[in-house]
Amino acid sequence: MSEHVGPTRDHVGDWLSRVQYVDPLPLGRGRRPARGSAAQSASDWEPRYRRAVIVSDVLATVVVVGVIGGLFGARGASNWHDRWGILAAGTEVLVLGALAVGRAWHSTVLGQGAEEFRRLGRSLFTAAVVLALGGIALTSHNIRLWIFVAIPAIAAVTLPERYLLRRWLHRQRQDGRCLLPVLAAGSVATVRDLIARTRKSPHLGWRVDAVCTVDGRGVDGDGQGGDHVDDVPVVGRLTEVADHVRRGGYRVVAVTPDPHWSPDRLQRLAWHLEGSEAEMVVAPVLMEVAGPRLHVSGVLGIPLLRVSLPTFTGVRRAVKEVVDRVGATVLLMLFAPLMMLVGLLVMVESRGGAFYRQRRVGKDGREFTIVKFRTMVRDADALRAQLADRNEGAGLLFKLRKDPRVTRVGAVLRRFSIDELPQLFNVLTGSMSLVGPRPPLPEESAAYGPDIRRRLLVKPGLTGLWQVSGRSDLPWEEAVRLDLRYVEDWSLALDAVILWKTLRAVFYGEGAY
C-alpha cells in the first residue's frame, strides 16, 4: 500500500456489511469519546437486536406450523394427530436448527446487505432438503405438506419480518442512534473520504468517532494542519491505534491506505487488538470489485484476495433468463387492466398513439426497439434541438426537470415509472432483462469509451442499481459506475434486492422526472 488512494463506495459498503450494531452515546464536536462508553453501549444494543430477530423467527415458525396443523390436522387416518405432532415438532426443530447452523442469526449479517436474506433462504432450503430425505427414509407421504406448504409459508413470514426489523434499525440510524463507533486509521485524504461516505449513508451503521494519522495531525478548514479531520478529533498516531482502541471502546478499526501500513505493521496491529471487542477492517483498494467475486484465501501462509472472473453464461444466467420470462408474463397479466386504462388516458389527453417506440442499444451492441407509454406531446423528438441549451442531464443524457413537452398524464406516469411497464414486452421477447444496466441510445453508445462499453456485455434492464440509487438525480459518472458494478458483480441475490428496492423507489417517485 504505497499510494494514497481513496476507498471506493463498494469497499466501504463491503466493510459495513461485515460489522455489528451498537448505539453509542452522541459525541459533541471535537469531544473525545469517554472511556468505555461505546463498548458499554454495544453490550446493551447488539444482544437486544439479535434477540429480537431470533424471537421473531421462532414465533413465525411456531405460528406457521400451528396454523397449518389447525387447517390440515383433521384430515387423514385415525393416527394422523400422532403423526402430525411428530412431523410438526420435527419441522420446527429442523427449521430453527438450520437457521442456527447456517449462521442466519450471526450479528455480522443482521441489518445490512443481502447476505442476511441469502443465509435465511439457504437455511430454509436446507431444512426442506433434510425433511424430504427424512420422509423418504420413513416412507411418509404426509411429509409433502411440511415441505411444500409449511417451509414456504415460514419463508413468506420471516422474510418480511426481517425486512421490517431492518427498516426500524435504519430509521434509528438516520436519527443518529444504533451506529457503530469507528476509529479510522490512515492518511488524512482517505480518512476524510471514509468520513464523508459514512455520513452520507448512516443506514449502513458506521460513525467515525476518532482518527489516527501518521503524525497525529489532522487538517483544519483552511487546509492547514490541525487536530481534527472534518470535525472528527485526531486522537493519536498510527503507531498508537491499539492503545486508543482499548481506551475508547471502539468496535471497528477501519484501516485506510497510507504508506505507513506495511504487511508487518498490519499484522502487529491485529495482534495488539486481540482481546478487545474491536474488529479490524482493511481496505485493499486495488480495484473496484466486491460481492461474490471477491474471496480471501491463504496460499503458503500468505492471505490473498482472489478475484474470480465475471460470469456471463452458465446455469445462473439460464436461471435469470427463466425468471425474466416468467416474471414478465406474470407482471403483464397482473398489470393488464392498468395498462389498458393508461393507454386510453394517454390518447385522450393528446393526439397520437398510446405507445412510444425508440431505438436503444442492447447486449453486445445490438439495437432493438424499446416500447414505453407516450409521456410527451406528438413529435417531441423534433422539439429537442430547441431545448438543447437547457439540458440538465448528466454526461451524455438529456434531461429536463420541467420539460415543456411532457403532458399532464405523462408527468404522473414518469413520477411512478408507469410509462415503463410496456418494456415488459421487451423482457418477454428477450431483448431486455428485469434487472440490468440502463439501455442507452445509439448516439450515447457511439460515444462510449472501452470501459463504458462493458455495460453492453449483458442485457439492459427494466430496473437496476441506477434506478434504486437516485435515477435521474445521479451524476453521469456515478450512473456509469453503478452499471459497471452490476455487470462485474452480478448475482441472483443482487437481482432480488434491486427488485425489492425498486418498489420503494417507484412508490416515492425518487429521482424521476
Short description:
The chain contains 15 helices and 14 strands.
Q: If you had to describe this structure to a student in words, what would you say it looks like?
A:
The protein has 513 residues and is of the alpha/beta class. It folds into three domains: 9-22 and 179-307, 3-Layer(aba) Sandwich (Rossmann fold); 46-173, no CATH class; 315-508, no CATH class. It has 15 helices and 14 strands. The strands form five sheets. Strands 5-6-2-1-7-8 form a six-stranded mixed beta sheet, with helices on both faces. The chain has a two-stranded antiparallel sheet with strand order 3-4. Helix 3 (80-101) packs parallel to helix 5 (143-174) and helix 9 runs antiparallel to helix 11 (423-429). The longest helix is centred in the first third of the chain and has 36 residues, at 37-72. It starts with 8 loop residues before the first helix and ends in a 5-residue tail after the last helix.
Could you tell me the radius of gyration in angstroms? 27 Å
**H/E element string?**
HHHHHEHEEEEEHEHEEEHEEHHEHEHHH
Shape: globular
When the domains are counted, the total is: 3
Ranges where pLDDT stays below 50 over 5 or more residues in a row are: 1-43, 74-80
Topology, number of strands: 14
Mean residue pLDDT = 79
Beta-strand portion reads 5-15%
How many helices? The count is 15
- Side by side, the strands of the main sheet go 5-6-2-1-7-8
Distance between the termini: 43 Å
